[in-house]
Amino acid sequence: MRWKLIIDPVGRPGRDNMGLDSALLRSVQEGGPGSGGDAFLRLYRWDPSCLSFGRNEPATSRYDVEKIRALGLDTVRRPTGGRAVWHDAELTYAVAAPCHAFGSLRQTYLAIHQMLAGAFERLGVTTTLASRRSGRAPRPSAGACFALSAGGEIVVDDRKLVGSAQVRIGKAFLQHGSVLLENGQDVVSGVTMGTIPRVCATSLGEVLGRSIAFEEVARAIALEVRERWSGSWSEESRSPETIESDKFGDVSWTWRR
Amino acid sequence: MSNIPDELRYTEEHEYVRSESDGVVTIGITDYAQGELGDIVYVDLPDVGTEVAKMDVFGTIEAVKAVSELFSPLTGEVVDINTALDGNPSLINQHPYEDGWMIKLRVQNLATIEELMSATDYAQHIGE
User: Fold this and answer.
1) pLDDT tens across A168-223, in order?
2) What is chain A's Cα-based Rg?
3) For B26-40, how does the pLDDT look when each residue is reduced to its tens digit (9 = 90+)?
């Protein structure tokens, strides 16, 4: 496997971040120009801060659209499932690779989270992977992404440190997720209509008892991933030119449900 | 071990096909697939009357942590969809081969069903 590590030097709006992740997935799926059978790990942040909805989440009935507008929050709908996330003080990772890179869906989820757990260990944060829950799943309308752990999630004292989601198209997958540097998920609760789920999130800053920068976490992940995932690695200082941001900047996509 | 009924046919993408009468087949995802996906929260199915070709994407399925495409194992016309899944997608987790079915397809060429994997072949495919 030829891995490309992309550490995005600047924060981007939600539409561009989702457009880039989507373009990386398509690149792997098509094995097209620029991909050459490559796989990608992208580390990035958001500017401005952004509220993202899951692909099938009923955002129009779950969240207060007028309040979101009044607060001037940027919004985007992800290509992946799950529930709403407030992207502010965080490092976001995205892995786009052929499905066979790690095996089954669960093996993929586990491999990526084990790698992240190793990176956090380098930073002095010991985490555990949550056991698989029993019982019924929450519907897409059930509340914030960080309100519960789905099994295989990275947690500290039963509080979620990373929220991840995956999409598989053909023989390629994209998994991306938020590593919280500070905990600001109350924003999701603040714009939720009806019953507000209890948010059980924590952050690297909270666990460490100090503030931690994007660059410090990115370095730890870059070191860990080269040790864990075999293949050749190259690092790129900028993201690919192709950004599929049109779809993700379209309000009819963002507010389609 | 996953439940792999002998009388069904299977695809590499983990859909199953059950032959009904009048050239109609029932399609859903296998017990193995629902186990891999975990708790299913949403299913997007086509409208009745939609024509699909073999290996066309006919819908998407969202589990707690993954969205996947659904591929049609055969060419034909969608003649029924399982509307119960709209309010209760967990039927797929509970009874993938019964109440958790997804679409019924009137197949263009019945002989193509024989091209799909047998239960034995599918068990090998998933390593069981």
Assistant:
1) 888 899 999 999 999 888 899 999 998 777 778 899 999 999 999 999 999 999 99
2) 17
3) 999 999 999 888 889
As a whole number of Å, the CA-based R_g of chain B is 13
User: Which of B38, B39, B68 has the CB atom closest to A168's CB atom?
Assistant: B68
Model confidence at B87: pLDDT above 70: yes
Q: How far apart are CA B47 and CA B102, in angstroms?
A: 12
Mean pLDDT, to the nearest integer, of B51-60?
94
List chain A residues with CB under 8 Å of B64.
81-82, 137-138, 150-151
ipTM for the complex shown: 0.70
Beta-carbon separation of A168 and B37 below 8 A: no
β-pairing, A50-53 vs A128-129, is unpaired
Structure tokens at B17: 């096909």
Which residue segments constitute the domains of chain B, with CATH numbers given?
Answer: 9-96 (2.40.50.100)
> Side by side, which strands form the sheet with A154-156?
A128-129, A154-156, A159-160
Domains, chain A, ordered by start = 2-245 (3.30.930.10)
What is the side-by-side strand order in the sheet with A85-87?
A: A74-77, A50-53, A85-87
What is the C-alpha to C-alpha distance for residues A27 and A38, in angstroms, rounded to an integer? Answer: 8
pLDDT, chain B, mean: 94
A200: annotated active-site residue: no
The tens digit of pLDDT for each residue in A154-166 reads 999 989 999 899 9
| Residues of chain A positioned with their CB less than 8 A from the CB of B67 | 55-56, 79-81, 165-168
Nearest to A77 by CA among A199, A194, A251, A239: A251
Q: Is A108 left (phi over 0), alpha (psi -120 to 50) or beta?
A: alpha
Phi, psi at A20, each rounded to 5°: -70, -45
Residue with tokens 């507010």: A255
